[in-house]
Amino acid sequence: MHPQKQSLLREASHQIIAGGSAGLVEICLMHPLDVIKTRFQIQRGASDPHSYKSLGDCFRTIFRSEGLYGFYKGILPPILAETPKRAVKFFTFEQYKRLLGFTSLSPGLALSVAGLGSGLTEALVVNPFEVVKVSLQANRDSFKEQPSTFTQARNIINAGGFGLQGLNKGLTSTLGRHGVFNMIYFGFYFNVKDAIPASQDPVLEFLRKFAIGLTSGTISSCMNIPFDVAKSRIQGPQPVPGEIKYRTCFQTMGLVCREEGYLALYKGLVPKIMRLGPGGAVMLLVYEYVSGWLQRNW
């Protein structure tokens, strides 16, 4: 094989393996908070008979009625999706960053635009898995009575096909969620990391990167949550069976705002930050360290 092709292939495989590892570690640590976030996002105010009073009440109720496994509902779709999803996220980010190097954009802005591109690409890959995951997380039956991931996917396809009524429901909201998140996440992390001097002490260097990753994940979560709420409402069970209330991204945001107030667009923000703040830091650190190890050893 031509040496240049070989080095490009090696670089791509490093990005894909490091990105996949980052996703797998993050999902295994943080999934329970994703279940709680989804439950908060799909409840429709105090009138909802299944309304949780607080974060603690949600934890206790799920543990009492659904057991420990209740916190891992819907984990198989993200695990199946996470390795390719994070691999796509980091690989496409690196490719967009390289392409944007040929434009007149400033390096700082190019990082944000590359993040936006990687988020939109990632959303296209991940949306079908998200539809299955949200419908499993919304199910309040005990873990043993719940349909399997593949049965649930089959039910969704039988009812709505592969398009925007079925397995790709809520695609616009997912594009908005991932596009906004990655644009801020990568833009902030790499710009700030370059601005704050590196430390020679490996522990302090780890903490420096972790703190920047944590801040990056937290800010991104606060900015993209209205898209996330719209996505959960569209992909979750509709309030009246057989009647579609939440149809499109901005129609859902407007409806939630009118009926429940604008703060309803920030439902699930605390568990989301608890998950994606440290989760965002874990992901970037695993990516950087695995990537560095692969470059040194392979």
Describe the structure.
With 298 residues, the protein is mostly helical. It is 74% helix and 0% strand. The protein starts with a helix and ends with a helix.
Supply database-style keywords:
globular; 0% strand; mainly alpha; single chain
* Structural class determined from secondary elements: mainly alpha
Number of strands: 0
Stretches with pLDDT under 50, minimum 5 residues: none
Biggest β-sheet description: none
Give the averaged pLDDT, no decimals.
Answer: 88
Based on Cα principal axes, name the global outline. Answer: globular
Distance between the termini: 17 Å
- Hey, roughly how much beta strand do the residues contain? under 5%
Oligomeric form: single chain
- Helix content class: over 70%
Q: What is the alpha-carbon Rg in Å? A: 20 Å
- Count of alpha/pi helices: 9
H/E element string? Answer: HHHHHHHHH
Write the layout of secondary structure elements.
Layout: H1 3-42, H2 55-66, H3 76-100, H4 107-137, H5 149-160, H6 171-195, H7 202-235, H8 249-260, H9 269-297
Quick structural overview:
With 298 residues, this protein is mainly α. It is 74% helix and 0% strand.
